[in-house]
UniProtKB/TrEMBL annotation, chains A, B:
<feature type="domain" description="Pyruvate carboxyltransferase">
    <location>
        <begin position="13"/>
        <end position="280"/>
    </location>
</feature>
<keyword id="KW-0479">Metal-binding</keyword>
<dbReference type="GO" id="GO:0046872">
    <property type="term" value="F:metal ion binding"/>
</dbReference>
<dbReference type="InterPro" id="IPR013785">
    <property type="entry name" value="Aldolase_TIM"/>
</dbReference>
<protein>
    <submittedName>
        <fullName>Hydroxymethylglutaryl-CoA lyase YngG</fullName>
        <ecNumber>4.1.3.4</ecNumber>
    </submittedName>
</protein>
<dbReference type="InterPro" id="IPR043594">
    <property type="entry name" value="HMGL"/>
</dbReference>
<dbReference type="GO" id="GO:0046951">
    <property type="term" value="P:ketone body biosynthetic process"/>
</dbReference>
<dbReference type="GO" id="GO:0004419">
    <property type="term" value="F:hydroxymethylglutaryl-CoA lyase activity"/>
</dbReference>
<dbReference type="GO" id="GO:0006552">
    <property type="term" value="P:L-leucine catabolic process"/>
</dbReference>
<keyword id="KW-0456">Lyase</keyword>
<dbReference type="InterPro" id="IPR000891">
    <property type="entry name" value="PYR_CT"/>
</dbReference>
<comment type="similarity">
    <text>Belongs to the HMG-CoA lyase family.</text>
</comment>
<dbReference type="Pfam" id="PF00682">
    <property type="entry name" value="HMGL-like"/>
</dbReference>
Length: 318, 318
């Protein structure tokens, strides 16, 4: 078994902003392309460099992301930007190949039922079809980050065995992916499942960097980040303002929140490259565009050392 | 320096329910005494045994808790129950002495400005007055848990030095307290401040058990619990449904949520003694009584292995 070592303090942690993809795709009302670009640019201006900007999916399936090419062409990429898009199939890979992304995030589910429902084919067929997807992308010089949805549990089948994650990760490694991204699609990740998943993948596919993609559906998203850090993982996805959310659990929050994650990492002794005040401004812009309160907590409470009005009075609050 | 060892898996972690005190006190509308008793009883029925049930404060200062004696007299205490109340001064200690609590939670702030505003006296005066409070309580056979508010930061002064926590903890130890409770009054705790506070207190007052009382104001409450566990702490306060909240930060959540905490602990390999389904029922009752959506996430999303409707259709969600 691979040795487990926590991430040392002072390490630069990668935050990959997925709000423009995982967040926006859940929104029913079409967000104007120019607004999507403004939000992405504000996130870059706050110091974020990794961004999953859109999906190359059928516009019939996800009308919100029908403007994938325009968004990609419209954003201002700062020095060091790393822009990715989600691709569910060969058709998506072909669109991505000419669209100017640095990497593609492929996707299939660890659970049979979820893959059937989401991608309309069994897991083994999805795995077989990756050959053609990787051919197209490597031909275009595009890096592939191998995504695994329902990695910590399936809302139809329940528990997902780590061996299934290991099997998929090994296939990704054999195909030449640089990383594997474990998607907590419906917020079922817990410290023990995260630990087991990381260890199984490290054993099966030691050549892959592990990316963790948590949802805060059950309130433990950032606690799972603490487990990831204890297990040595340095890459986390998050969505500005905590955008996202599962359409099947009313009121449940979505992805872990980018600015809350950046705050946690900075206050745990890690480097993020992010200016927290500017990131909160970007979240306020996203909230304004979306038009409803987002679940992010820093957005409501402000930075840690924001002072109360000195005239406030209190009463024995304990 | 004391050695740091994480809490071993399988350990029983104490969850102290503080919703009836820290949660209810923030509610503007008076909650009928009988409803308070019903909620407390539902929490006991879910397996919780430690509960901070009320405060013995001036009814003018906190009218919501004017029924302290009636609530205490009305609850059904199961085998093993440990019922505490907050006491800010000698008058409160005298009321608590005859009211049938197992322990009293005293309170003073680590920061001068917060103590002046909350208790109307300097920290040193509060420390000096503890003699009389401890005399009354030990005379009545009541255990004292020494509370320190604003332990991880003050909303007026900013950073609170760990040396100040150490000084107060040592005073509590000298007086005969069994534990010290670090209160994250306005949600400023972070992994690094929690770690520094625990280590400073272990060095200064090794005879005291450390209790951690986090608010989720900035989203990192349960991440701070992970730090506490890594530092060997086995006692955490939480409020059912995530009740509480700071009246000065609109929309900010309050205490960490009891059922989300129990879920995290169970899914991290610890014992809690809690039946999660019954705990979610108790949270639903509290939400119903309070009459607005509470911040707890399990309350919205349900238990981890709750299945989706098998007829649901999905579309390339990744």
């Amino acid at each position: 078994m691979a040795t487990v070592a926590p991430v040392p303090q002072g390490t630069r942690i990668t935050i990959c902003e997925v709000g423009p993809r995982d967040g926006f795709q859940s929104e029913k009302t079409f967000i104007p392309t120019q607004k999507k670009i403004e939000i992405a640019n504000a996130l870059f201006a706050a110091g974020l460099r990794h961004m999953q900007i859109t999906s190359f999916v059928s516009p019939r399936a996800v009308p919100q992301l029908a403007d994938a090419e325009e968004v990609l062409a419209g954003i201002d990429r700062p020095e060091g930007a790393w822009v990715t898009a989600l691709v569910p199939n060969l058709r998506g890979a072909e669109r991505a190949a000419g669209a100017g992304v640095d990497a593609v995030h492929t996707v299939l589910s660890a659970s049979e039922t979820h893959n059937l429902k989401n991608l309309n084919r069994p897991v083994d067929q999805s795995l077989a079809e990756l050959d053609a997807v990787f051919d197209v992308l490597s031909g275009a010089g595009i890096v592939v980050e191998g995504g695994i949805a329902t990695a910590f549990g399936c809302p139809f089948e329940g528990i997902v065995p780590p061996e299934q994650l290991a099997r998929i990760a090994r296939r990704y490694q054999d195909l030449g992916a640089t990383s594997v991204s474990l998607g907590d699609t419906t917020g079922m990740a817990t410290p023990l499942t995260v630990q087991a998943a990381i260890r199984a993948i490290r054993d099966a596919a030691p050549g892959l960097e592990i990316h963790l993609h948590f949802h805060n559906t059950r309130g433990v998203g950032l606690a799972c980040v603490m487990t990831g850090l204890a297990e040595g993982v340095t890459h986390y996805d998050a969505a500005v303002g905590g955008l996202g959310g599962c359409p099947f659990a009313a009121g449940a929050t979505g992805n872990i929140c980018t600015e809350d994650l950046a705050y946690l990492l900075q206050e745990s002794g890690y480097e993020t490259g992010v200016d927290l005040d500017h990131l909160i401004d970007a979240a306020a812009l996203a909230q304004d565009v979306i038009g409803r309160a987002l679940p992010g907590q820093l957005l409501k409470a402000g930075p840690r050392l924001k002072r109360h009005d000195p005239e406030l009075t209190l009463t024995a609050e304990g």
